Design the sequence.
């Protein structure tokens, strides 16, 4: 069974001319867990991953797998499997030959090619030219490439983009299985909701800088609680809240008050003699906390 | 070392798993075969008296002396066919940029200089292979036609076989020049335009224009096409014996070194211009 290595980013900075794409980024990714690498488009996720894989030279800092830079790994494909974008194929090459080219370069047995095509469900398309593949099939072929060397570390950039619902379900199971086997799994996405069901840890960046890291549940601490409250006489309720200095917005199913205490809102309404038709705590989504973190960084 | 051998094997697999190599080989064979067969029939026909030179108007005046016909015809393989290995080399490199296959390539083999070295070696061998195809056309069809007109094909002559051997070397070197050019100009369209414009138009014109003055001719012998012809030892340019014009040429080994210098300069330059840059 392949052993997962710790991925370590140490003070990675990358400037493109005057633009700082990645700014002093440091974090580590542990084996046996699925780690989501999140941030809006243009936050520097892809650049960071390309630096990690030795494809882009960092202006400053190092990124390593178990302490070793990618280009110094003695057997790169057997240590790290990476899928970066859905279009790294020669359209005239068959799926089998595409994988075969890199299996030869890495000195892997030819049997691995069919084994990984079967694993991602592309075995029947092995001898079709990749030019005719759908986006979902290309994503699967990209995943097949990552598995060629049966590596302990997986680095996947936006693997869910372009997948159909069945494919999304499949990849979620796939990520969980890989981590359960003890591998290090780093998966990037610009949408938390896309990976929320599969990740254990999150690393959130915005504008090239780290804004949050920790287990998925740690996002809850950043969530601002809300109370949804409604009354037959909505105007009277609004007046009562205003009088009590509770800020609120008007939502679809009532007023959304910025408070964590339903009893307080109930008391305000009762004191004002307003009859309530609804009063409940709104579970603030992780997505909301995620956006708050990301936007907070934007406004700085 | 084993890594390098694996990288070379991978580069061969890349080249042979798409259709480009055999399409180019097929077109090369047809083009050179037609040219060599046609001109062999014309020249041999004139020399053997089967065709009356006055019937052909001015065409007969340029016909070379009898003994120089076979090497002239055989050298079409490189003097005309050299554009094919250049194109294959340029496509092999620019294709990696165009289809973003540099990403998986460098993931599998992070040492980039080794990859470029392996590609160079691979294309040299495949360029020699294209040379075999071109010679099958120029020597195979050319000798057949000349034999039919009763002209000595000189196939028993050692010099003919020297020419054939140097043609193979030349075609291999041209393929490396293509690899280097592709790295210098990673845009596939731009690369192809440069190859076609330079080989089919710019260089032939330069060589013709430069031959009117002695000092320009001295410089023009270092043009890649001229060096290539010098290495092979015969060509339509030198063989036509342009009367009154200075047609100087390098020694064959000098031509070989000049061509090698072009190949090395293009490849090493390409390494720094694009190959070793960020892959985004």
Sequence:
């Amino acid at each position: 069974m392949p052993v997962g290595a710790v991925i370590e980013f140490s003070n990675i900075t990358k400037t493109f001319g005057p633009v700082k794409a990645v700014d002093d980024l440091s974090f580590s990714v542990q084996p046996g867990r699925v780690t989501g690498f999140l941030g809006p488009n243009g936050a520097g996720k892809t650049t960071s991953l390309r630096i990690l894989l030795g494809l882009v030279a960092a202006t400053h800092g190092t990124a390593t797998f178990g302490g070793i830079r990618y280009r110094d790994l003695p057997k790169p494909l057997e240590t790290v499997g990476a899928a970066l974008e859905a279009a790294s194929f020669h359209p005239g090459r068959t799926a089998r030959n595409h994988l075969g080219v890199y299996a030869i370069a890495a000195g892997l047995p030819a049997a691995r090619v069919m084994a990984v095509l079967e694993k991602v469900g592309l075995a029947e398309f092995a001898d079709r030219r990749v030019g005719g593949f759908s986006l979902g099939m290309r994503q699967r072929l990209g995943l097949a490439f990552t598995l060629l060397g049966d590596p302990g570390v997986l680095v996947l950039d936006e693997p869910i983009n372009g997948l159909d619902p069945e494919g999304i379900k499949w990849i979620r199971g796939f990520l969980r299985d890989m981590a359960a086997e003890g591998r290090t799994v780093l998966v990037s996405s610009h949408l938390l909701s896309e990976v929320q069901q599969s990740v254990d840890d999150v690393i959130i960046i915005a504008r090239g800088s780290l804004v949050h890291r920790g287990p998925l549940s740690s996002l809850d601490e950043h969530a601002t609680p809300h109370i949804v409250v409604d009354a037959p006489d909505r105007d009277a309720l609004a007046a009562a809240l205003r009088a009590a200095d509770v800020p609120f917005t008007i939502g679809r199913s009532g007023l959304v008050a910025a408070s964590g205490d339903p009893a307080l809102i109930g008391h305000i309404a009762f004191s004002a003699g307003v009859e309530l038709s609804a009063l409940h705590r709104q579970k603030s989504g992780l997505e909301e906390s995620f956006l708050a973190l990301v936007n907070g960084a934007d406004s700085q | 070392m084993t890594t390098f051998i694996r990288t070379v094997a991978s580069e061969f697999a890349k080249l042979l798993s798409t259709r480009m190599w055999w399409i180019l080989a097929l077109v090369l064979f047809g083009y050179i075969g037609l040219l060599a067969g046609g001109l062999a029939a014309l020249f041999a026909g004139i020399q053997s008296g089967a065709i009356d030179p006055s019937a052909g108007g001015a065409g007969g005046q340029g016909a070379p002396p009898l003994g120089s016909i076979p090497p002239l015809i055989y050298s079409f393989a490189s003097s005309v066919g050299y554009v094919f290995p250049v194109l294959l080399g340029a496509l092999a490199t620019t294709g990696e940029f165009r289809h973003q296959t540099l990403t998986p390539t460098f993931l599998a083999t992070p040492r980039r200089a080794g990859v470029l070295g392996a590609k160079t070696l691979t294309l040299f061998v495949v360029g020699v292979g294209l040379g075999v195809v071109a010679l099958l056309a120029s020597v195979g069809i050319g000798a057949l036609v000349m034999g039919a007109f009763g002209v000595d094909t000189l196939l028993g002559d050692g010099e003919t076989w020297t020419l054939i051997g140097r043609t193979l070397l030349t075609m291999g070197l041209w393929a490396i020049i293509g690899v280097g050019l592709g790295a210098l100009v990673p845009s596939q369209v731009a690369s192809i335009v440069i190859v076609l414009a330079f080989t089919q138009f710019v260089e032939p014109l330069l060589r013709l224009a430069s031959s009117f003055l002695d000092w320009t001719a001295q410089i023009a012998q270092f043009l890649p096409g001229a060096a290539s012809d010098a290495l092979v030892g015969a060509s339509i340019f030198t063989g036509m014996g342009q009367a009154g014009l200075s047609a100087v040429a390098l020694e064959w080994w000098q031509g070989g070194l000049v061509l090698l210098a072009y190949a090395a300069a293009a490849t090493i330059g390409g390494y720094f211009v694009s190959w070793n840059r960020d892959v985004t």
